[in-house]
Amino acid sequence: MFDSLSEGLQSAFKSLRGKGKLTESNMREGLQTVEQAMLEADVSYPVVQDFMQHVTERALGKRVLLSLRPHEELVRIVYDELVSILGPVDSSLHLKKSGCTVLMLCGLQGSGKTTTCGKLSQLLLEQKITPTLVAADLQRPAAIEQLHVIGRQLDVPVYSNPDEKDPVKVCQAGVKHAEANGSRVVILDTAGRLAIDQELMAELSRIDKKVSPDQVYLVVDGMTGQDAVNSAGAFNAELELDGVVMTKLDGDARGGALLSVKNVTGVPIKFIGTGEHFDALEPFRPEGMASRILQMGDMVAAAREAHRIVDEDEREKLEEMMASGEMTLDDFKKLMEKIAKPGLMGKMMGLIPGMGQMKEMLNNEDVSGGVKQTIGLINSMTKAERRDPKIIDTSRRTRIAAGAGVQPPMVNQLVKQFEQMKPLMKMMAGGSAADRMQMMRQ
Ligand code: GDP
């Protein structure tokens, strides 16, 4: 995600690394590289100006210039400013304690609205809430059927009425239907257009007035850069949005839209879409995103991903294990088998601090091959070694490596990997409780 922005910022930090105390002119050069990286990422110009003004003020302060590690200070300053332009964000869906909460999704055609209905449903299902979906996109001929397909895939009810031509009536009837069925949440999938036009705005604003949804979210395509920011501004003027869902950030989106939208429109990003599958929706956290941009990893997001791939029975076992403090390489082996899916492994590694580089390797290489090797190594260890890898000395290392047919340094690498994954496994066991609380918050 946002590779070129990350690389641009890294090269600014690198230019200052090892310089010891800095002069103002050294620092100004580094700051110019930061500014260039932001502009190349297609961040709105006024946002870049504002951002650079804050960063420059702090970076040219005496404390930073005279500090022993000025480049680390600059990383910190850029991190703080990224968090500040991205937030604050409240990713709660504000579900009502009783009755049915109505969420309305709107956005241009192709932005990912219908897919996001499925993704939000999946998120709710994980919290044991079954929403009702309402097919109110009467513009795109295939939209109703697409929502039904999603409903069947996720086993979620879908309300539609192909004979009704008025989307307001479809929404009203859909909400009634959901209430009668005792749904706690109803999601309205409204119509889009290829571009913003008056007819679309009038239709959406009629739904907004007549149905009074509790939350109105705009879905925008993160790949469209400044167009996404402009459409957020236009929709917000008409609908008073509660938040933005920015999709397609898994592709080669440069990041400009994500970094600009809150600052330019005042509307916070609630969720980000990072893939076509239903599980590719993340509650947006400015701190996590700033960490990712600065290649510092995002443990909370990693734990969340990990939590999703472990089913409930296993989670209980994991919780017990963590509580007893007995996490062994055998447990690690099971985890590796679980995440050994192409793509998933790379995604997880990209989120773990310090594992960014491994991500590329894992994405390109035969993932199952790597996992097989890990499993081979663990298999050639004794029970005692699996329980306590600290006892592995040189002769044990040679024996284990020979047993698995690899070089001895691979054994060290595996043990290191195991240590790095431990906190992740801990969060995996209890990780989503915070999410659940967050979502229910009023
Ligand atoms: P709608 O017209 O706004 O309802 O858009 P759709 O939900 O039909 O999505 C349009 C296309 O974008 C589909 O091919 C989706 O699979 C794809 N899509 C949606 N969200 C994402 C995302 O987060 N990442 C990627 N890569 N594709 C997405």
Automatic annotation (TrEMBL):
<keyword id="KW-0733">Signal recognition particle</keyword>
<dbReference type="InterPro" id="IPR000897">
    <property type="entry name" value="SRP54_GTPase_dom"/>
</dbReference>
<dbReference type="Pfam" id="PF02978">
    <property type="entry name" value="SRP_SPB"/>
</dbReference>
<keyword id="KW-0547">Nucleotide-binding</keyword>
<dbReference type="InterPro" id="IPR004125">
    <property type="entry name" value="Signal_recog_particle_SRP54_M"/>
</dbReference>
<dbReference type="Pfam" id="PF02881">
    <property type="entry name" value="SRP54_N"/>
</dbReference>
<dbReference type="GO" id="GO:0005525">
    <property type="term" value="F:GTP binding"/>
</dbReference>
<comment type="similarity">
    <text>Belongs to the GTP-binding SRP family. SRP54 subfamily.</text>
</comment>
<keyword id="KW-0687">Ribonucleoprotein</keyword>
<dbReference type="InterPro" id="IPR042101">
    <property type="entry name" value="SRP54_N_sf"/>
</dbReference>
<feature type="domain" description="SRP54-type proteins GTP-binding">
    <location>
        <begin position="268"/>
        <end position="281"/>
    </location>
</feature>
<dbReference type="InterPro" id="IPR004780">
    <property type="entry name" value="SRP"/>
</dbReference>
<dbReference type="GO" id="GO:0003924">
    <property type="term" value="F:GTPase activity"/>
</dbReference>
<keyword id="KW-0378">Hydrolase</keyword>
<keyword id="KW-0342">GTP-binding</keyword>
<dbReference type="InterPro" id="IPR022941">
    <property type="entry name" value="SRP54"/>
</dbReference>
<dbReference type="InterPro" id="IPR036891">
    <property type="entry name" value="Signal_recog_part_SRP54_M_sf"/>
</dbReference>
<dbReference type="InterPro" id="IPR013822">
    <property type="entry name" value="Signal_recog_particl_SRP54_hlx"/>
</dbReference>
<dbReference type="GO" id="GO:0048500">
    <property type="term" value="C:signal recognition particle"/>
</dbReference>
<keyword id="KW-0694">RNA-binding</keyword>
<protein>
    <recommendedName>
        <fullName>signal-recognition-particle GTPase</fullName>
        <ecNumber>3.6.5.4</ecNumber>
    </recommendedName>
</protein>
<dbReference type="Pfam" id="PF00448">
    <property type="entry name" value="SRP54"/>
</dbReference>
<dbReference type="InterPro" id="IPR003593">
    <property type="entry name" value="AAA+_ATPase"/>
</dbReference>
<dbReference type="GO" id="GO:0006614">
    <property type="term" value="P:SRP-dependent cotranslational protein targeting to membrane"/>
</dbReference>
<dbReference type="InterPro" id="IPR027417">
    <property type="entry name" value="P-loop_NTPase"/>
</dbReference>
<dbReference type="GO" id="GO:0008312">
    <property type="term" value="F:7S RNA binding"/>
</dbReference>
